[in-house]
Amino acid sequence: MQHRRMASFPPITQNPDIRFLGRLLGDVIRAYGGEKLYRQTEYIRSASVDRARGVAGADLVDTGLDALSLDDTLAFVRGFMLFSMLANLAEDRQGITAEPGADLASAVAALEAHGIAKEAVLALLERALIVPVLTAHPTEVRRKSMIDHKNRIADLMLLMDSGRAETDNGEKIEEAIARQIALLWQTRPLRRERLYVQDEIENVLAYFRDSFLPVLPALYAKWERVLGARPQSFLRVGSWIGGDRDGNPNVQADQLRFALARGCEAAIGHYLDAVHALGAELSVSTELAHVPQAVLDLAERSGDNAPSRKDEPYRRAIAGIYARLCATHLALTGKAAPRPSVLPADPYGDPSALRRDLVIIAQGLASEGDGALATGGALGRLIRAVETFGFHLATLDMRQNSDVHERVVAELLNQAGVEADYGALDEYARIALLRRELSTNRPLGSRFAVYGEETTSELAIVHAAAQAHRTYGSQSITHYIISKAESVSDLLEVNIILKEAGLWRAGTDGASPQAAIMAVPLFETIADLEAAPKVMAAYFGLPEIAAIVTARGHQEVMIGYSDSNKDGGYLTSTWGLHQASKALEPVFAQAGTAIQLFHGRGGAVGRGGGSAFAAIRAQPPGTVQGRIRVTEQGEIIAAKFGTRDVAAVNLEAMTSATLLASLEPEALSDRDAARFATAMDRISHGAFTAYRDLVYGTDGFKEFFRELTPIQEIAGLKIGSRPASRTKSTRIEDLRAIPWVFSWAQARVMLPGWYGVGHALSDFEDKALLADMAATWPFFRSAMANLEMVLAKSDLGIARRYLPLVQDQAAAEGIFGRIADGWSRTHDGLLALTGQSRLLEKNPTLETSIRLRLPYIEPLNLLQIELLKRHRAGEDDPRIKEGIELSINAIATALRNSG
Ligand code: PGA
Fold first, then answer.
1. Architecture of domain 395-663
2. Neighbour-count burial of 106, counting CB atoms closer than 10 A to its CB (0-12 exposed, 13-18 middle, 19+ buried)
3. What's the pLDDT tens digit per position in 578-634?
4. d(CA 860, CA 888)
5. If you measure from the C-alpha of residue 482 to the centroid of ligand 1, how many angstroms do you get, rounded to a whole number?
6. 137 is annotated as an active-site residue
7. Nearest CA to ligand 1 atom 3
8. Half-sphere exposure for 12 (CA within 13 Å, toward CB)
9. Ligand 1 center to residue 137 CA distance, Å?
10. H-helix segments, 439-569
11. How many angstroms separate the CA atoms of 180 and 200, rounded?
């Protein structure tokens, strides 16, 4: 072991931040883990680096690993995980600059170059809605405490960048960073207890407090300068946490109430702080400035009669606003504000009443001097925050599975004596029956009926939603997502359930019906995506729905990336989503309403991951129209919104992409669009056939997957409140998409991100056409870029090492051979159509990033395999299970977008 060089920890990168942090980590391992662990770690690391570099004879990584005791193994894995975390941090520091063109000024300039004036941009923004929607999908393996330490290191490094050697407290920055790394080293990375929905709600609140609340108003202020005008508040934030109960029995009415109450507390808490600070700032005296009557009136109404402030009407008015906000806090959350006011006051009835008072102040300030006090600065940002976050903070979506709705409606109809067996009716009979019920305001439910647990819980949650509307306003819940939607009756069933709580009102006496919450279908299999335009056309064809949709001006459709991928493979899913969106556009045009697509995507490529900027821009023409919602999940939330700087960059990229996708003229000629689409149909068909043959048509594939990957162990990770699967079935069809993608990533196969593409590409004769598509078609370019990333992170050499875990070796060899062949074909096909000699040749930043990581992942994979073997052989030392879970965490951290 000793012959290997003992370089400083770790020397394989030019990135000075990584070298710096790696050196400190090495010191920490030595100080806290001991010299022996440090040496072992360093030995394995440098052997792995040599191997990755192709140094001759450097294929003995396992030898170093064999020498590790179980305790050392756990410590080693933690060391490698921390290194990856610190490398991510260093990379993020470089990546804080936006993708080229992904800022609003560039988007406006690009549009102007196409002859699209700023006025058109402003007109679009008046009807726009752009919403990242945060979910608790369980793919974030890191504990919040670890992320917090990491963020503190990032802050300290920023301080160092500014030329400082010491913190404000006189501490040396390098020592402070070393201390944070030592804390990371001593922080348990795995959760001992399961996560509750309440924990997920609290976790996401931190992102609101630290990022969204301060960043959004500041971004708007910047955009107003670019646009020369003040657009309405089109960029908002949504959440699923506390409302998404699809497959999560732990989300019920209590959780919905808790989520909204905590959101309200955070929003009003933010306003209270801001108003308090304004009070300190606005010391304008009537002796030195003219103050308009409206402000004087507001001051008079405040009840603040302190003699010391007699000539300071702004301060008095603000004391009144503060007092009313405190009363609002008490009224809405049941708790006194953290710093209560001494003045008696009535609560605000709604956020617009608060906004009105703030605007009076702003107009007062604007009437003096050049108005600079009013528009820029803290007051302008506060008004923007109130418009954006209201009293509810984030709009909370509801979500449930269509099967559940069907059962609930069946029970309601049965108990009401309307229909004994709803489930036995065909689609036409269902629609007729549901429409009849929707045409009257008489509810189906009775206080005296005794319902089953499911129906009781579902009814309780819609009643909680109706109460939320009364308490926090109608913006608190606007969408109800229907998972596995496939028919018109799926949509009508939700309207029936909403009606039970008064959230659907039948149009009586000639008035139009009203839906206070929009039923939104989520189409998520290949067949359902294909049928989506038909379903929506039929839905819009119902006069009561047409009336609602026309009055609202838009309707949302959600499309699911992960499940369509699991169903039909990467390319067919990507193409199916594109085609469904495209085919929906004329259906919406015919109905005279704007289309609002909601993209349900995760971080991994097999779940729609990749550059959001490129993805939005690659949407088919006519399908964005200024309105878009996109899920943000798991590890992506910390990556995109973990600090203010990155949050600002990502929110601006989303906004710019939406503007470009909505207004930019179509780059492709009709002729190219037609021939590319024909080619894509064929390619997609080829990829679909190959994927389905392997995954659903191969004997023993299910067992192969369950034994090769750590799928069973992943299910035991305590990373989310919802159970890993909806049913006890082990069928791949019934497995949730997240563990499917996650487990393939761990074994480095990453099959959902590429399998089948190679078959389709190699069978497609017109290679020139493929190259043309890759060069000129944003859709295809974006699809190929994501494919390339996932191929570069996969490693079939390592994946092969997992093979002994499969019991039926003969079958395993056969299946693995097909996967390996598919990989080579995909790899070769991709290089051919992009004209490259190696993967990522044209993306040096990503190439460097991945190349730096690989040597750190490989030993983790090898250890994982060993531990899995021992675990499955029945060894019951708890450290083995812990080691497996740690290795899963460490590999996910190193791969970044793996979940
Ligand atoms: P779901 O999400 O299983 O909650 O529908 C799928 C995903 O986001 O991958």
1. Alpha-Beta Barrel (3.20)
2. middle
3. 999 999 999 999 999 999 999 999 988 888 888 899 999 999 999 999 999 999 998
4. 9
5. 12
6. yes
7. 736
8. 23
9. 7
10. 453-472, 488-500, 526-540, 543-552, 561-568
11. 25
